[in-house]
Amino acid sequence: MKKLDARFIKGIVGPDPVLEDGTPQIAFIGRSNVGKSSVINSLTGQKGLARTSQFPGRTREINVFRIEDRVYLMDLPGYGYAKYSQEMRRRLLRLIDWYLIRSPIRPRRIVFIIDGEIGPTADDLEVLEALETTGTPIVILANKMDKVKPSRTPVRLGEIAAAVGAHPIIPYSAETGLGRKELAAELFG
Ligand code: GTP
Ligand code: MG
């Protein structure tokens, strides 16, 4: 698959004109370290676009990337990183909650990323339930599927489906590119 034209626009922490310029937004949300930034890099085919880290808590603002001049990918900070101070955790949750739930801004789609090896955690299911109240279409991305043994994959995906309900699920690996075509079709097709 070809590279997508993608560029970093800015990091935001609250209301900003970029959110109101009429460009459709797609939000990438998930626990800290599940690979949100890596998924954006693999999807666009641009390795260094979004900063990633082996340590949780890399992304602390909502980073806006413009793709092919027609859509914004919104790389959100992760939630649930235990080592953050309580103040930092609260600040990040407030930002996520403001953008996705309380503000009048409505992304066209939410890409809800979970760790496919671990499956949805209690935290994930709580956030998912809150997001469902907004009515925004949600696609579940089970990332890191390269860490699941192929023989276990169907069982794993069945468990994830049973936990998350009716949303479409895409098995994904930012590492191998598994699912990239499906995600691109789902978002841009
Ligand atoms: P925060 O910004 O801290 O919330 O993290 P994030 O969700 O953006 O995660 P990030 O993309 O920084 O990736 C976290 C770690 O997971 C890095 O060490 C990545 O290399 C690794 N990782 C991401 N996706 C995959 C994947 O599909 N497979 C494997 N094996 N590792 C992955
Ligand atoms: Mg990140």
Give the gist of this structure.
With 189 residues, the chain is of the alpha/beta class. It has 5 helices and 7 strands; from the N terminus they run ββαββαβαβαβα. It has a single domain, classed as P-loop containing nucleotide triphosphate hydrolases (Rossmann fold, 3-Layer(aba) Sandwich).
Short key terms for the protein model shown above:
5 helices, single chain, seven-stranded mixed sheet, alpha/beta, Rossmann fold
Strand content: 15-25%
Q: Count every helix, treating DSSP H or I runs of 4 or more residues as helices.
A: 5
Please state the oligomeric state of the protein chains shown.
single chain
Question: Based on CA inertia axes, which overall geometry fits?
Answer: globular
CATH architecture: 3-Layer(aba) Sandwich
Structural class comes to alpha/beta
Helix content: 25-40%
CATH topology: Rossmann fold
Largest sheet: 7 strands, mixed
How far is it from the N-terminal to the C-terminal residue, by CA?
A: 14 Å
Spatial arrangement of strands, main beta sheet: 1-3-4-2-5-6-7
CATH superfamily: P-loop containing nucleotide triphosphate hydrolases
When the domains are counted, the total is 1
The total strand number stands at: 7
